[in-house]
Write a structure and sequence with these properties.
The chain contains seven helices and six strands, in the order βααβαβαβαβαβα. It is α/β, with parallel strands linked by helices. The protein has a single domain, classed as Rossmann fold (3-Layer(aba) Sandwich). Strands 3-2-1-4-5-6 form a six-stranded parallel beta sheet, sandwiched between helices. The longest helix is centred in the first third of the chain and has 16 residues.
């Protein structure tokens, strides 16, 4: 099954706001793996004035396509779907920010469009927290991952589970 890594909103305006070292490390490990296996890596950028993809990977991104979006669903940019179809992509790995908006919406739409969709939970992050949603004790990443996993509509794995599945 031909797969692609979709990295959503890996941008300064998000990363400057939060500490997401584990998430960033897992995204980078997936990027390295996909580069070694010569698989598609695609960035999706939310249009925000005076912002760009995070400088830390800016040099690496020059060789990869970047699709801009104006709302949480990455497929609102019709060129993304066309690009994936042209390359025969069947499986999408969803990573990036914010899990409760852009990653969630994109995952659901990708699945609806017929892609085998896998969200890598520990390669997704958020700027929100329990205070943002006035829900004490809420772990947003875990909550979204659990809902999607229970739905059986979008596969949810941790990085290590993806590696195990891939190697089996």
């Amino acid at each position: 099954m031909k797969e692609a890594l979709l990295i959503i909103d890996y941008q300064n305006y998000i990363l400057d706001y939060i500490d997401q070292n584990e998430v960033l490390n897992n995204i980078k490990k997936l990027m390295n793996l996909f580069e070694q296996e010569e698989k598609e890596i695609i960035f999706v950028k939310n249009i925000v004035e005076n912002d760009d993809v995070n400088e830390e990977i800016q040099m690496d991104i020059k060789e990869y396509p970047v699709f801009e979006k104006k709302n949480p669903n990455a497929f609102s940019n019709n060129n993304l779907y066309k690009y994936l179809q042209q390359r025969g992509i069947e499986r999408l790995l969803i990573t990036g920010f914010n899990i409760e908006y852009c990653c969630l919406f994109t995952s659901i739409v990708a699945s609806h469009l017929g892609f085998h969709t896998t969200m890598i939970e520990d390669a997704c992050g958020t700027t929100g927290d329990e205070n943002s949603y006035e829900m004490p004790g809420l772990d947003i990443v875990d909550f979204v991952g659990t809902i999607l996993n229970w739905s059986a509509y979008v596969e949810v794995l941790y990085y290590d589970e993806y590696i195990e599945q891939k190697d089996s």
